[in-house]
Amino acid sequence: MHSSDEFFILACSIVYRQTIAPNKYDTLALIHTGITLCSVHQGSNFLGWHRVYLLLYETALRQKDKSVVLPYWNSVLDNQNITPAINTVLFTKDFIGNGKGDVIEGPFKHWRDIYNCSLIRNIGRKGYPLPSPEIVETIENDISVFLVKDVIDHFGNNETTKTIEGQHNIPHDWVGGMMDILSSSPKDPAFFLHHAYIDYLWEQFREKQQFLGVDPEYCPGLGVVSVNNTKLVYNLTLFHASHRQMDCFHWMNSIDGYSKNYTQYLYAYEDSPTYPNCGNSKYLTWNTVLKRCIGINPVSSTASLSLKPLHGRLIEFLLFVFFCKFF
């Protein structure tokens, strides 16, 4: 029997390997390129657009196997001071493959993109930590932080590390390789595990908004005012306007990404592991000093592989198309 996470890996491999180039996986990865990058980063559309993107990706996987759910990688659990974060069990042959150099182990070994470039990683680059548990705790639970403008990057300065998008940037840098470049990052399946966690974090924030009586469906339409890109200067506020059509998903507007319908009708998240049993995972342990679950060193673990799905999302392709057209 496969666990749900193993089904994800199996289905992801099938989507990649058994279709003609550019295959379905390549096509999905190419969505996250070009002018689209202007409208899906550094502003309020970052959250909603990537939610739709994840749903489209998961739907493609579920076309291969309806048992698949998209798991999330809570990278905060690897940000700890007991064993080096580089020893995370995620980047081993039993999970998504090695984290240094060309990926030559695991289910995605020897992957190549449409330009015949190999899948490359460089995890644990010096100077690039993983997300801060303190900042994530603030986003999830601090009642003084409850507006979307508080958790999106629309200033383009150092304060953005305290936002959801700012915390999102850190694992991209930490994994390195293809994940370090916006246009190539979806070519690594780690991208979707990472973004599923960012979506989970946003959902935690939205639940806090509802508890405080704040409308989670409000999309402020904010973006960085000026971004220099060699020859051009972009005003990203225009790209993040609430009623602007989503790039690549033209049947939807930016505001549609903020709808409650996703987690009300289509999928739900399982809570991240916590005290006292850390989700009964043999790859996590409760640290009495840090007072949180942390990842263990897989090298020192003799436990057999047993992946536990961290969240389930239920969606059929036709339902997805119907839902999007009649928002």
From TrEMBL:
It comes from the Eukaryota. The keyword Cell membrane does not apply. One of its GO terms (molecular function) is oxidoreductase activity. Gene3D superfamilies: Di-copper center containing domain from catechol oxidase. Residues 41-58, 188-199 form the Tyrosinase copper-binding domain. Pfam families: Tyrosinase. The keyword Magnesium does not apply. Keywords: Copper, Metal-binding. InterPro entries: Di-copper_centre_dom_sf, Tyrosinase/Hemocyanin, Tyrosinase_Cu-bd. PANTHER family: TYROSINASE FAMILY MEMBER, TYROSINASE-LIKE PROTEIN TYR-1-RELATED. This is Tyrosinase-like protein 2,Tyrosinase-like protein.
